[in-house]
Design goal:
The chain is α/β, with parallel strands linked by helices. The protein has 11 helices and 8 strands. Bound molecules: zinc ion. Residues 23-24, 113, 115, 178, 182, 226 line the site of zinc ion.
Length: 320
């Protein structure tokens, strides 16, 4: 049940991850959306985490196939989408971190993070940035009938409540938490800042409270750590919320400032059965996600993959 955090395995992938993180680093007063570079890039993933190994079926790496969900702890986020599964807590009492679904079926989940920091909100207020809402991407997902999972920050929901409601009430999609403020949960997290341990559970809950306020019927009890940064202490701190943390096994590089063709090629080359792909719908450095999405979806479908939501993969891993 235990293994080390799966770090990006190539330099390119690591750089791509850094670029992903830059999406949420816009508060430092740099001149443009793309100018914010991660700091020293110090390792933010402190290991000691219960993470399924890449390439192994989640049924063996994440949760026993026969396992059922643990009783919800007191204070847990209510799963108000019926039949959505979470993973049971591990023997150490920590939530297992989900990176991919079972490898036996050709199903891939596309995920979109809705990043927003206080600094990004400042850029909107001062007119330095026009928008952090990729409406063209959303239109393509709907036109192509692509199921998708969104991880929204509370600040993004505050900024775009109507858009958040539209996504969270669309049966094509499901929505989960990406923290309130997009600060890091472990280490320096590439300059994202750090959430004090005592505030971590509240950071996880805040987007759910907002999604409830906009009547987001398709909200699921999952959480994506900002920057993917976590450690054992963070997992312990968020355990009372009852969420299943969701990472990824395919980095799209969409926040790398690269072209849509390159993003699509990256995803299509790496996607395999059960993959979870991380992308963004919050523009900024991820300005070209929309240019890639049609190629990604058509390419995956041409290869025989079914595009599904994360809850479909978690459900399969949990033995539904
Ligand atoms: Zn993010």
């Amino acid at each position: 049940m235990t293994s080390s955090f799966r770090r990006p395995r190539t330099a390119a992938a690591f750089l791509a991850l850094l670029a992903v993180l830059a999406t949420g680093c816009s508060g430092g007063g740099s001149g443009s959306d793309d100018a914010d570079k991660p700091g020293a890039g110090a390792p933010a993933h402190n290991g000691n985490s219960s993470v399924p190994s890449d390439g192994s079926p989640a049924a063996s790496g994440t949760a026993p196939a026969s396992a059922s969900s643990s009783p919800a702890p007191a204070g847990a986020i209510g799963a108000w989408t019926p039949n959505v599964r979470t993973l049971p807590l591990g023997p150490d009492g920590l939530p297992p971190v989900f990176t991919n679904g079972p490898r036996d079926k050709p199903r891939v989940a596309l995920t979109f993070d809705s990043d927003m920091t206080a600094g990004m909100q400042d850029r909107l207020r001062t007119g330095k940035t026009a928008s952090y809402d990729n409406t063209a991407l959303l239109a393509d997902l709907r036109r192509l009938k692509v199921p998708a999972t969104f991880f929204m920050t509370g600040l993004w929901i505050d900024t775009y409540p109507q858009e958040a409601r539209g996504i969270a009430t669309d049966p094509l999609f499901e929505v989960a938490s990406h923290s309130l403020t997009h600060r890091g949960f472990a280490g320096t997290c590439y300059g994202l800042g750090h959430v004090p341990t005592g505030e971590m559970a509240a950071e996880v809950r805040a987007p759910f409270e907002r999604l409830r306020a906009v009547q987001g019927a398709h909200t699921v009890p999952y959480f994506r750590f900002p920057g993917g940064c976590y450690d054992k202490e963070a997992l312990k701190a968020i355990a009372p919320t009852g969420v299943t943390p969701i990472q990824w096994d395919v980095i799209s590089t969409d926040a790398d400032g690269t072209t849509g063709d390159k993003i699509a090629a990256t995803v299509l080359a790496q996607a395999k059965n059960g993959s979870v792909v991380v992308m963004h719908n919050s523009l900024g450095p991820a300005a070209h996600t929309g240019d890639a999405i049609v190629k990604i979806v058509e390419g995956l479908r041409a290869k025989g993959f079914e595009v599904v939501r994360v809850s479909d993969l978690v459900g399969a891993a949990a033995g539904r």
